[in-house]
Amino acid sequence: MNIIAGPASQLLAGRVSEEMGGNLLVTEFKKFPDGELYTRILDGFEDPGIVTIIQSTVSDSDFVALLQLIDACYEASNINVVIPYMGYARQDKRFKSGEPISARAMAGAIKADNVYTVNIHEESILDYFDARAVNLDATPVIGRYIKNMEFENPLIVAPDISATPLARNASVSLGIDYDFLEKTRLSGESVTISPKNVDVKGRDVIIIDDLISTGGTMAEAISLLGEQGASGVFVACVHPVLANNAVIKLFKSGVKGIIATDTIDKGVSVASVAPVIASALCHP
Ligand code: R5P
Fold first, then answer.
1. Is the residue at 124 inside a domain?
2. Which pTM value belongs to this model?
3. What is the pLDDT of residues 118-165, one digit of tens each?
4. What are the helix (H) ranges across 53-175?
5. CA dist., res. 133 & res. 136, Å (int)
6. Which of 36, 112, 230, 280 has the fewest CB atoms in 10 Å of its CB?
7. Mean pLDDT across the stretch 226-252?
8. Does the pLDDT of residue 284 top 70, yes or no?
9. Mean pLDDT of the chain
């Protein structure tokens, strides 16, 4: 299988290729003077056969590069597209009249035989792809990473009930406890936020979410858990978007460490989703 690494997913594509013994093709990316992108698959592309394009769409230009790579593979017998992190997935509904469903617009433009996403923000987005679309779960990879670190009586916590499946999947079969943060209204003016079932005193707590963008959600949870006596508060996410000064915000709130996967290649991307993607490609 030919594997084509988009500009946003070079490291991950290399790792996937290593895992499954794929043929990693070299691709040229550059910008024209007017800012338009130029993309070209360089080697061994006369008879493309089955191709897998791996490209996260963190920025708008990442999305354009993905569309260009798909078009460059027009003659391939089979096109797999792996979008490890899919941008615009949070606009999965029309929240106000006049808005687009951006996730539908993005998905509709992707022409392929198979599409693989990783912990996409909402699974219902998969229905917007014309292709067969599969969402992969990277949280067990994070769970194993946590298990191998020397945490003190670790507890994995979701920042809200909707993220509970992430906490459960990261901890299941590893013998690590999990819980979620719940908001309780005490009066008209005051609310408390604390883990629903478990006392965090003296424990290392790892808050897990699908993504960290501005860091606002995590920063609030880190401060609260610190005040409630956790010995150390860490954060984990599948997609380290980490926009603007998110990292600084996390440290100012007292985070002890940041754990993320390589769906987006950042300094905190310590746990690789390559085995998860390789396994899905090998056993479709
Ligand atoms: C929300 O639905 C997501 O799961 C994340 O909790 C959210 O997008 C994180 O955003 P931020 O880092 O900007 O608080």
1. yes
2. 0.94
3. 999 999 999 999 999 999 999 999 999 999 998 889 999 999 899 999
4. 60-72, 102-109, 139-148, 164-171
5. 10
6. 36
7. 96
8. yes
9. 93
The answer on 216 and 128 residing in a single domain is: no
Res 152: pLDDT = 84
- Tell me whether residue 183 is one of the annotated catalytic residues: yes
Pocket test for ligand 1, best of 193, 212, 239 (most atoms within 8 A of CB): 212
Tokens of 220: 């609030």
Residue type, 127: D
Strand ranges for 42-176 from DSSP E: 50-54, 78-83, 114-118, 132-136, 155-158
List the one residue out of 177, 179, 167, 120 whose CA is nearest residue 140: 167
Domain residue limits at 110: 2-137+272-282
Domain total of the chain: 2
Ligand 1 contacts CB of residue 214 (under 6 A): yes
Residue 70 lies in a domain: yes
For residue 267, being part of any structural domain is answered with no
Query: In terms of domains, do 88 and 156 share one?
Result: no
Contact (Cβ atoms closer than 8 angstroms) between residue 59 and residue 88: no
pLDDT at 190: 66
Q: Which atom of ligand 1 is nearest to the CA of 213?
A: 12
What would the DSSP string read from start to end of 1-13?
-EEEE-TT-HHHH
